[in-house]
Structures are given as structure tokens and as C-alpha cells.
Design a protein that fits this description.
Layout (H helix, E strand, L loop, with lengths): L2 E3 L9 H30 L3 H15 L8 H25 L8 E3 L4 H6 L1 E3 L7 E2 H26 L4 H7 L3 H24 L9 H4 L8 H28 L16 H16 L3 H6 L1 H7 L3 H12 L1 H4 L3 H18 L5 E7 L3 E7 L11 E5 L9 E4 L10 E7 L3 H11 L10 E6 L11 E7 L4 H16 L6 E8 L27 E7 L7 H5 L1 E6 L17 H32 L8 H41 L7 E5 L11 H8 L1 E5 L5 H6 L6 E6 L2 H11 L7 E5 L5
Parallel strand pairs: 11-12, 11-17, 12-13, 13-16, 17-18
Antiparallel strand pairs: 1-2, 3-4, 5-6, 5-14, 6-9, 7-8, 7-10, 14-15
């Protein structure tokens, strides 16, 4: 990738900035070294070198302690390094300051551009880049390597003497050996399974990923885990049946592997797996959603099945997920301050909340919303349309009426002219640690229907950047495809009601191409539709949306991870030294393995809950009074409805000068679909960022154009509603 430098005023970084850059560099280097060490362990694990040289040495060093016993080996070799990487990631993200003006311009061609281009567009994996395919191939290679080496080494130990001693035939001995190794390979996948769904984890944003974009990795890993564990279980059942030991299925050995616990874990996993298939998930989403809570049963009985010592190999990702999940639980216990609701003619609702000015988030971030009066259990993710730069005290989400939950909300708001209060809880926001759209000379955003919502936040954020900073803003092209003319009203949401200057800055070069595919002219609803606004009364019990861990949330998260893990090791060390060791003496044959595992699980849970709650209460005490004053001082109109005309109807009734300016830059096309190939190839610029959010076919079409080789200046990025 070629890079050109633009003028940044010639300012030199301060000593503070140089220190931050140094800390970022050191932490990033340490993260890479530790993670590569973990991967090396996974690669070496099936080899004889690991088993005959490395492992005995590690057992002498960590596994003979009176404080940790045999579990100390896996605790320090596998769990400790991953926890260290997660903590270092928190430090890195804390010092990763959002740049005021990115001075690097991306050019066409180059290695990095090629790696980010879509390689597969259609197929079961979805739209996948060259980089993703490369890492997937490397991961599959690791699984195959491990399985082949495991089998080769284990089959070498099968001799006529060993067969005679166990009363087995050759195929039975090989089947049992393969069954065990399938389980070992499944543990590799399980070690990474929960990382993509830990929404607030530091590991994903530290490498430029979000939980939203990483859901597909969770899906891939989930399929691998269930295929391997299912084969693991079936092979053992066939083996037990062939040697007339089918009673082993209900065996719960408190000193060794518990088969029954493994079967319970497998059944829970299969129930989750069945509901993930597309037809079931789409038609019965609530069944899919609630069934996934069986992950608690799945993981609990997995740990009871293999014992705590072996679980530490696969447990780090789940530990990080548990911390994230409990913090989300704490945040969701409070109601947030809902300021207003705008109901558009297109069956679309914009909810605006009060926000702590210190809460900053990047464009395309997501907020999970729960409204108890509609459903106490359902949480729905929505893209944030506001900009934390342009609207520091407000946060908005747009909800398109499509399912049962959103239909009930629309009916509730549209059927009443006055609602004093609507109780709402949220989780989030979650999004990329930073976005850098300024590296492109032009930015093309292609969307279908409600897919416009992430682009609203991008446009607003770039407007805020142009108002506050002197840097070149990319030329913006927004290509929208709507089914009906009533949906044009969604374009009224592109600009906020407040926070803008008197007119759009000349630095903002934006063009909107709106296509209404199923109508040849504007319908009656589009020309006469009104935007209804409801204002809600403030309540002392409501809080502004803020980070659960305050302004320095990354440092606090790192503190929770490190302190909870340290306290866990201290408590477990004391319990082992003064309770378990005097009974068992590290033989693992006297004290119940099940009891020991349950003790570890309880201690882990208590440490996570205690440290997370303490961090939350400390930040609430420190910043809570400021937030309460902010909620009380919010000046809003009386809680009545106020109809407002859409700025995109035929009469062109304009609310403000910026809105008028935006309307003048909008072209409406009725009765046709956008010619995406022509529109994209006609965009000028050495680097054109192409973002797409909408139906699957639209995303595939845009990805196909960007990867076709017809031009080298298009850089593709898909935004999906995977959550």
C-alpha cells in the first residue's frame, strides 16, 4: 500500500504524546510475543517433544506446588498468558487516542489493499477477505496437524501385548484413541469460541475488530466445536457398545473423567447447535435466543467432565467473556433517561437518550435496548446514529418496524399523543475502538432500507470533524435503495436537530442518490407524511447513558481482569495449601475431583462478581452525582407530540438551512434500482472506501464489484446486522 503525507501544520508531538506512543508500542510488542508463545504451545502440544521434555519440566516447576497442585501447570502455561494479553490490550486501548486528522492517504494497489479485498463473495462462509481466508486456513491446518500427530503417536503405542492386556481388537483400540484425540482438538476451538462474543473485551478492538464483525468467527468456531465434540461422543459410545461396556455412559467418576457430565454438556451443545440453522433461527428467533443460554450448562458440565486442571487450557476465553457478561448485567439493571421519540411515516422510530458528555464512541457503534413494558427478557441491538462529537449530551438509535417487538413499540408510541415516561435499559455502546475514514479521498456508502443507520453516524461524525478540525474530508456519496417513497423520510435523520452550524460546511462534499424501487412516483404518504415527536418527562431514577466503568473504562477493565485473577489465585492457593493438600498430597486420588472443580468454579465466579461490582460502585460514586445533575438540568419541551413535516416531500418544507442544503444535494430516482457497477466505477479518487449495509444480495454485489479487478482504487468493507 502506497502512502502519501498531507500537511498537518508541521506540529511536533509533545512529550506526553511520545510517552503514549512508547507505551502503545511496548504493549503491542508484548501482546504479540505472548500470543505467539501461546500458539507455539498449541503447535507443540501433540508432539513427543512436548510430552517427554517440555511437560515434565513444567510439571516440576508449576505442578508440584502445595498451593496449586497439578492444576498449576495448565494455570500458568495457558490461562495466565491469555489473561496477560487481555490486560495488556486494555492498556494499549487506553493510550490509543483518536487522531485529530489522519495524515496518511491510502493509495490503490499494494499488499495491504490486496489482503483486505473480498476473496469469497458467495458461499456458506459469506463475504470473506484474503486475510480471513488465510487465518482460517492456518487455524484448520493447526487442527489437522494436531489430530494427525496425536494419532500417529498414540497408534505407535498400540501393540499386540497392549491389545491382549485390555481384551481389545486393533480397530477398537484405534477407535478409542481417535475418540480421545477428537476431544483434544475440540478444546482448541473451544479456547477461542467465546472471544468474538465478549462485546467489551479488549482483544478484538486491539487488533481492529468489533464483536459485530466477529460474530461470523464465533459461528465458524461453534460449528467446529460441535462437529468435533459430537464425533468425540459418538466414537466413545460405539467403542463402549463394541466392548460391552455401555454402562460407562452413566459413569460419574469423582476421581477421574466423568462421562455423564460430558454427555450432559454435549446434549446442551446440540440443543444450541440445532437452533442456529438459518431457517430455524429466522422463523423462531426467540427459540434460538433463549436456547443459547444453555451455554452455562454446556460449560459447567464440560469443566466437570474433564476436571479443572485440563479446563484451564480452554478456560481463558470463557473467563474474559464472564467478566464482560457480568458488567453488562450490572449496566442493564438501571433505567436510562429517554428524552424523545420521533415517529417517521416509514414506520421508523428514532429514540434519543440523555448521554454523559464524557462517553465517546465511534461511528457504526451498536446499543442493545430493552423495554420492559414490551418484553422484560428481549434485548435488541440497534446502530447508533448520533455522533459523540456533534451531540455530546445525546445518543440516538433508529428502529425500523419489522418484527413483533418493534411493531409493538411503534404501536405504543404512535397510538398515543402523550406518554409521560417509557422505562428503557441499555447495554453498550459497543463498536470499533476507532475508525479512520479520513484515509480515503472518497467514501461511498451503499445501503438498503434500514441499512442507512450506520452511515448516518458516519456522516454526522465527519461533519463534526469538519467543524472542529482543519483536515480534508473525503468526498461522500450515499446510495440508498428504498422499497416505498414513504421511506425517503429516513433521509431526514442524516442531520441532527441540533449541534450544526447555520449551514453545511463547504468542506463537506456530499451527494445522495436515493432509489425508490417499487414506485414510479412519490406516494400520498410521502407527500403528506408528518414526523411526530414525543417528549418524555424526566425521572430522578433514570440515568444518562454512560460507560459502566467511567471515562477510563479500559484501565478499569484491565484492573478487573488482573485483580480478579490475582485474588482467585490467592484464594485457591490458600484453599489448596490448608484444605485440599493435607488430604490429597497432590496425588489426585483421594480428594474428589468434582468437589475440587466446584470450589474453583465458585471462587472464579465470586472473584469476578466482587471486583466488577467494586469497580462499578467506585465509578458510580465518583461520577454518579454529575450524571444526576445532568439529567435534572436537561431542558426539554412538555411531553406532548409535535408533528413535523418531512424535508423530502414534494412541497420541500425545510426545517433548517443545513437540511435545505442536504435536500439540494439529493437526487431521487423512482421505479429503478441503482446500477451499482456504474456508480462505483465512476467515483474518482486514488482511494475510494466502499461501505455497504443492507440485504445479503446487495452486499455480495458490491463485494463482487470491488474484488473484480476492474479498478484498484475500491476498498471494500461490509457492515452487517449479525447480532
Amino acid at each position: 500500500m502506497e502512502i502519501s503525507k498531507s500537511n498537518n501544520g508541521g506540529s511536533n508531538p509533545s512529550a506526553g504524546e511520545e510517552f503514549k506512543d512508547m507505551v502503545k508500542g511496548v504493549t503491542k510488542f508484548l501482546m504479540m510475543v505472548i500470543f505467539l508463545g501461546i500458539i507455539l504451545l498449541w503447535i507443540m502440544m501433540p508432539t513427543l517433544t512436548y510430552r517427554t521434555k517440555w511437560l515434565p519440566l513444567m510439571r516440576i516447576k508449576f505442578g508440584t506446588s502445595t498451593y496449586f497442585g497439578s492444576s498449576g501447570t495448565t494455570l500458568f502455561m495457558y490461562m495466565f498468558p491469555m489473561m496477560a494479553v487481555a490486560c495488556l490490550g486494555c492498556v494499549y486501548l487506553h493510550f490509543k487516542k483518536r487522531k485529530s486528522c489522519h495524515i496518511d492517504r491510502e493509495r490503490k494497489g499494494g499488499v495491504w489493499s490486496a489482503l483486505r479485498k473480498p476473496m469469497l463473495v458467495k458461499g456458506p462462509l459469506g463475504i470473506v477477505s484474503v486475510t480471513e481466508i488465510t487465518f482460517l486456513a492456518m487455524f484448520v491446518a493447526l487442527l489437522l496437524w494436531s489430530f494427525i500427530i496425536y494419532l500417529r503417536n498414540s497408534f505407535a503405542t498400540i501393540t499386540p501385548q497392549s491389545l491382549a492386556a485390555h481384551g481389545e481388537s486393533l480397530w477398537q483400540a484405534k477407535l478409542e484413541s481417535a475418540a480421545l484425540r477428537l476431544g483434544l482438538i475440540g478444546n482448541i476451538c473451544l479456547a477461542f469460541l467465546f472471544l468474538p462474543v465478549a462485546r467489551g473485551s479488549s482483544l478484538l478492538p486491539a487488533v481492529g475488530l468489533t464483536s459485530e464483525s466477529s460474530i461470523k468467527y464465533h459461528i465458524w468456531l461453534g460449528h467446529m466445536v460441535m462437529v468435533l465434540f459430537t464425533l468425540h461422543g459418538l466414537c466413545y459410545i460405539i467403542y463402549w457398545a463394541s466392548v460391552n461396556e455401555i454402562s460407562q455412559m452413566i459413569m460419574w467418576d469423582t476421581k477421574d473423567i466423568s462421562n455423564l457430565a460430558g454427555e450432559i454438556s454435549l446434549v446442551a451443545g446440540l440443543m444450541m447447535w440445532v437452533t442456529t440453522y438459518p431457517n430455524i433461527r429466522r422463523r423462531f428467533f426467540e427459540v434460538f435466543f433463549y436456547t443459547h443460554y444453555l451455554y452455562i450448562v454446556f460449560m459447567l458440565f464440560f469443566v466437570l467432565h474433564v476436571g479443572i486442571s485440563f479446563s484451564f487450557i480452554a478456560l481463558p476465553g470463557f473467563y474474559i467473556f464472564l467478566v464482560d457478561r457480568f458488567l453488562r448485567f450490572l449496566q442493564s439493571r438501571e433505567n436510562v433517561r429517554l428524552l424523545s421519540a420521533r415517529i417517521l411515516p416509514s414506520d421508523t422510530i428514532e429514540l434519543t437518550f440523555s448521554k454523559n458528555p464524557k462517553l465517546a464512541y465511534s461511528p457504526t457503534s451498536i446499543l442493545f435496548v430493552n423495554i420492559p413494558s414490551i418484553s422484560k427478557l428481549q434485548w435488541h441491538p440497534f446502530t447508533i446514529t448520533s455522533s459523540s462529537q456533534l451531540e455530546p449530551e445525546k445518543l440516538s438509535v433508529v428502529i425500523k418496524t419489522e418484527g413483533k417487538w418493534s411493531t409493538k413499540l411503534h404501536q405504543k408510541l404512535s397510538s398515543s399523543d402523550q406518554i409521560d415516561r417509557l422505562a428503557v435499559s441499555v447495554e453498550g455502546p459497543y463498536g470499533p475502538a476507532s475508525t479512520d475514514f479520513l484515509r480515503h479521498e472518497a467514501l461511498v456508502m451503499v445501503c438498503g432500507g434500514s441499512g442507512i443507520t450506520p452511515f448516518i453516524s458516519i456522516v454526522r461524525d465527519l461533519i463534526a470533524t469538519s467543524q472542529k478540525q482543519t483536515c480534508k474530508i473525503p468526498k461522500l456519496t450515499l446510495i440508498c435503495a428504498f422499497k416505498k417513497s414513504s421511506e425517503i423520510s429516513m433521509l431526514d435523520l442524516v442531520l441532527p436537530l441540533s449541534g450544526l452550524e447555520t449551514e453545511l460546511s463547504s468542506d463537506i462534499n456530499i451527494k445522495i442518490e436515493a432509489y425508490i424501487t417499487r414506485e414510479k412516483e412519490a406516494g400520498t404518504e410521502a407527500t403528506t407524511g408528518k414526523i411526530k415527536t414525543l417528549w418524555f418527562k424526566p425521572s430522578l431514577s433514570d440515568q444518562s447513558i454512560s460507560s459502566i466503568l467511567g471515562p477510563n473504562s479500559w484501565l478499569w477493565l484491565g484492573g478487573i481482569l488482573s485483580s480478579s485473577f490475582l485474588i482467585f489465585m490467592i484464594i485457591i492457593g490458600i484453599i489448596n495449601r490448608y484444605y485440599i493438600y493435607p488430604i490429597d498430597h497432590n496425588t489426585n486420588k483421594i480428594y474428589s475431583l468434582t468437589s475440587k472443580t466446584i470450589i474453583y468454579i465458585v471462587v472464579i465466579s465470586v472473584c469476578i462478581m466482587a471486583t466488577s461490582s467494586a469497580a462499578m460502585l467506585w465509578n458510580k460514586k465518583k461520577y454518579g452525582n454529575v450524571e444526576n445533575k445532568q439529567v435534572q438540568n436537561v431542558d426539554v419541551p412538555s411531553p406532548t407530540s409535535s408533528p413535523t413535516s418531512s424535508g423530502y416531500n414534494s412541497v420541500r418544507e425545510i426545517e433548517s438551512t443545513p437540511q435545505e442544503s442536504l435536500v439540494q444535494r439529493t437526487n431521487l430516482h423512482f421505479g429503478e434500482r441503482p446500477n451499482l457497477k456504474k456508480l462505483l466505477l465512476d467515483v474518482e479518487g486514488s482511494s475510494v472506501g466502499v461501505l455497504v449495509c443492507g440485504p445479503k444480495k446487495m452486499r455480495q454485489k458490491v463485494a463482487e464489484i470491488c474484488s473484480s479487478g476492474l479498478t484498484e482504487n475500491l476498498h471494500f468493507e461490509s457492515i452487517s446486522f449479525s447480532w
